[in-house]
Amino acid sequence: MIPFVDLHAINARFEDEFKIGFQDFLDSSYYILGNQVKTFEQSFAKYCGTAHCVGVGNGLDALQLILEGYKLLDKLSIGDEVLVASNTYIATIIAIKQAGLKPVLVEAESKTFNFDLDALEAGITPKSKAIMPVHLYGQLAPMKEILALSSKHNLLIIEDAAQAHGAKDANGNRAGNLGSAAGFSFYPTKNLGALGDGGAVTTNDDDLAEVIRKLRNYGTSSKYVNEVLGFNSRLDEIQAAFLNVKLPTLDSDNDFRRKIATRYISEINNSKITLPFYDKSDAHIFHLFVVQVENRNEFQTYLNENGIGNLIHYPIAPHQQNALPDFKHLKFPITEKIHNQVISIPISPVMDAQQVSRVIEVLNSY
Ligand SMILES: Cc1ncc(COP(=O)(O)O)c(C=O)c1O
Which pTM was predicted? Predict the structure, then answer.
């Protein structure tokens, strides 16, 4: 059996350093917003190339806190429209709704699983105030075109970088440093994953960083002085300790994933399986390796029978989820097709060459 992702093996590589990190944490007696969080914020801001990183509770909160921050800075108001891809993971849309803003879903295209750019432009109205590009599956969104639209229409760009830690554009700029602000998730399966929940906001906007630092901690900047109505969403100190251990390995892990993806793309040859787009650049970090098949149920049964772990990202389009009844009447044919056909096969920094060969062999024999 080849697991879809072997989190134990991924984290066992760091066991000794985790133990040292835990001992430091224990000895520090600073269990909330201590030195581990400070160190991680500095290191991750440096890694992304941004002026600021603010550690928060999870990726959903990171996105919502950016929106709440912009509301406090009068750059967004309740009811403003935010354009977002209709095939994103639902968290992006939840963040917009929870912040009292209006998600405007934009049809996807199935080559890179990102915005259909014509549909994006067509979705802009006088009420549009922000675009939330999602670097889905680890592939950067078409930021050049999105930036051009945002400057033409004066829109904020809030990257959902939850699946794209370390992805770089052609100029070497990383996800998290490509718009006005970005939200990251450190959910354990992510390319930079904690051993529990975690998230971060990165930005070059000093005012936004300052307001999010307050918002994540009850709206305070000094103890028990509440300046704004805040939240409790702090990156946990022990998770920051684990992330400090793992961050230096992120680039080599991403390279390793790209090597597996390169093998899959050159060696899987089966007309029933559509492989993902890859331009051989560092714009993709292959958080997931997502293929498309017409008869997914049959293919999934075949993978299961042959011991190849798999998952579907995602089986139900957001506009068809019961949680979003206002969107039920909408139709996004490409998005719906994507949701009917996608299936993810194993890719991770701990797969060995034999396992990769086995996945290729099983897919070629389908
Ligand atoms: C694209 C995307 N956005 C947001 C999130 C939310 O992150 P979290 O689960 O840490 O809240 C996720 C996480 O799964 C995600 O994949």
Answer: 0.98
